[in-house]
Write a structure and sequence with these properties.
The chain is of the alpha/beta class. It is built from seven helices and twelve strands. The protein has a single domain, classed as Spore Coat Polysaccharide Biosynthesis Protein SpsA, Chain A (Alpha-Beta Complex). Strand 2 (about 25) and strand 3 (about 30) form a beta hairpin.
Length: about 230
């Protein structure tokens, strides 16, 4: 069964405080998005990639990312003004309903191959697979009249890759947009489909702030020293 990876690369650099989209920040002389793609390609060289990014990022893509992606099967799709439309455009760019598809954040370059395998295999068997991690901190719900305790043991933080049977995700993204759609799982769940959870990883970080970037640089130095 053919496997696809949609890489959502529509983000900007606002929280990072920079002028270029964060997926093009260089880590060890490669943009983050290139690290992400190469990591998946190393896991499975037969993967087909659809990278969804805004038209005003195409020049950066060609200049910074493409030179590092020789031999990687990448198709570019238009990014939307919200994540829903970005993924919708990428899903519609896949010319078949048969296969498995993972939707992944462009700025999560450290996903382990074990997690990728877990997500794809669970999605093939169950239809979906969403990586989650336990919440270590206490949590409170913010209410109009103040705040209220919530049981953290009943909550999980959600990561990517979020994997699905391709025909299921295509049906999900044929729906009209709702502001309840915060990720792909919420889009699929809106059809009444049960979402399957798998164990995520604390090291599967999403690089969105200067603090994340500093941690990422330290993690790359550490992992390099272990090899």
């Amino acid at each position: 069964m053919q496997r696809y990876v949609i890489v959502a690369a529509g983000g900007a650099g606002h929280r990072m405080g920079i002028s270029i989209p964060k997926q093009f920040i260089l880590l060890q002389e490669k943009p983050i998005v290139a690290h992400t793609l190469l990591n998946f390609h190393k896991f499975d060289p037969t993967l087909k990639f659809i990278v969804a990014l805004p038209s005003d990022s195409l020049e950066l893509w060609d200049e910074l990312a493409v030179p590092h992606l020789d031999g990687v099967d990448v198709q570019v799709a238009d990014g939307g003004n919200q994540r829903f439309y970005t993924v919708q455009n990428a899903v519609n760019a896949i010319g078949t309903d048969d296969g498995l598809v993972a939707v992944h954040d462009a700025v999560r370059p450290f996903t382990s191959h074990a997690l990728m395998k877990r997500c794809f295999e669970t999605a093939e068997k169950e239809g979906s697979a969403i990586p989650v991690i336990r919440i270590a901190d206490s949590v409170r719900a913010v209410l109009s009249e103040g705040s209220e305790w919530r049981d953290r043991n009943a909550l999980r933080a959600v990561q990517t890759p979020q994997c699905f049977k391709l025909n299921l995700l295509k049906r999900a993204y044929a729906q009209s947009y709702s502001n309840q759609f915060t990720d792909d799982a919420s889009v699929v769940e809106h059809m009444g489909v049960r979402i399957n959870l798998v164990d995520g990883e604390k090291t599967n970080i999403k690089i969105t702030t200067p603090e994340d970037l500093a941690i990422s640089k330290a993690w790359m130095l550490y992992t390099s020293s272990q090899n």
